[in-house]
Each structure stands twice: as C-alpha cells, then as structure tokens.
Amino acid sequence: REYLENMLEAKRLSPRYVIEDMKYLDFPMFEESAIPMTCFCDIKLHSIIEHTSFYGEFGIGFKKELLIQKGIQPIHYLNENSPFTKDFKEELKSLLDETLKIPEMNQDYILKKLFYTKPIQGEMWDKRIEKNINKIFHDENEWRYVPENIQKYKFKPIIPVGKHEPIQDRV
C-alpha cells in the first residue's frame, strides 16, 4: 500500500526489484533473480477482484495506448517444452562461456530478453493459504517497464537470490 501511495504522490511509477523464479530456464546461477521493473496486467475489469485478492488490495487502470506510448512491453510467456525455450536456455548458458567472446551488444540483448520473459505457468507462494500453488501466469497478460539505462537509475541489472531464503520471506 505504501509503495502505491508513494507512486501516486510522486506522480510517477518507479521500478523496484521483483523476485522472479527462473528454475524453468535450467540456469543454476539464476534460479531466483531480482530484476528492477514495474509490472502491469492487461486483465478485464471483471477479473480485478481475483487478481487483487492474490497480489494486493488495489488496482489502477491505465489506457493501453498510454502504456504503448511510454514503451511498456508485453512479456513473452515461455513454454518449457518449446524449441524457442530450448534455444533461449542455450543463449543464457553461452553468457557464461568465456571462450565464445559474445559481443556486449548481444549480451545486453540476451539479458533484455530475460527481463521480458516468464513461464506460462509455475509455482508461486499464495499468502492467503500460506503455501505454493500452481499459477497460470499467462492469464495475467503481464506488461513490464524495465529501466532502459539501468546504470543511470543506480540499479544492478539482475541480482541472483540466495537459495537459503524462501521467496515468500522476501516479498
């Protein structure tokens, strides 16, 4: 609530680190990562009650045209079994292979792709029942704002999260 009130008072949407479960990418270094972003969902008004009961008490509506104009991007949902996801996993692994000498521009592109992807479905902590549930993320039609020039905003582009601390204790 406080985060939302601060955004409204400042008349701006500021990104904050959001912890993403990335186990579906089979990339041990980044099983859970925190990425600076502001998230939006393209859901119908009749679904807002279900959405806010899961994520929080409030929802704010925006015109889609405004989000498009401001460069907000719909995310890409990955099917864990698809050739696209297999190729993406290989791209991520290539970032760690120093012998490949991937140009910085290509490294940035691979990371940007990572910032705008999520599995179609996965486990997520449900604070209402205090346990993990299987959630179909695709139903949320998520859009994201991730700062273009992350260093300008003094953000680290991505932070691996330690395995010793459960996600729900940090959200």
Pick out its properties:
171 residues, alpha+beta, 5-stranded antiparallel sheet, two-stranded parallel ribbon, 5 helices, 9 strands, 25% strand, globular, disordered C terminus
Main sheet attributes: strand count, strand direction, barrel closure: 5 strands, antiparallel
The domain count comes to: 1
Structural class assignment: alpha+beta
What is the average of the pLDDT values? 83
- Overall shape: globular
Tell me the radius of gyration. Answer: 17 Å
What distance lies between the first and last C-alpha atoms, to the nearest angstrom? Answer: 13 Å
Percent of residues in beta strands: 15-25%
How many helices does DSSP assign? 5
Uncertain segments: 163-171
Number of strands: 9
Which percent bin holds the helix content?
25-40%
Pattern of helices and strands? HEEHHEEHHEEEEE
Task: Tell me what you see in this structure.
With 171 residues, the chain is α+β, with helices and mostly antiparallel strands. The protein has one domain (2-169). It is 29% helix and 25% strand. It has 5 helices and 9 strands, in the order αββααββααβββββ. It has helices at residues 2-10, 48-55, 64-69, 83-96, 104-115; strands spanning 16-21, 32-41, 73-74, 76-78, 117-119, 121-126, 131-136, 142-145, 159-160. The strands form 3 sheets. Strands 1, 2, 3, 8 and 9 form a 5-stranded antiparallel sheet that branches. A two-stranded parallel sheet has the order 4-5. Strands 6-7 form a two-stranded antiparallel ribbon. The longest helix has 14 residues, at 83-96. The chain is globular and about 50 Å long. The model is unreliable at 163-171 (pLDDT under 50).
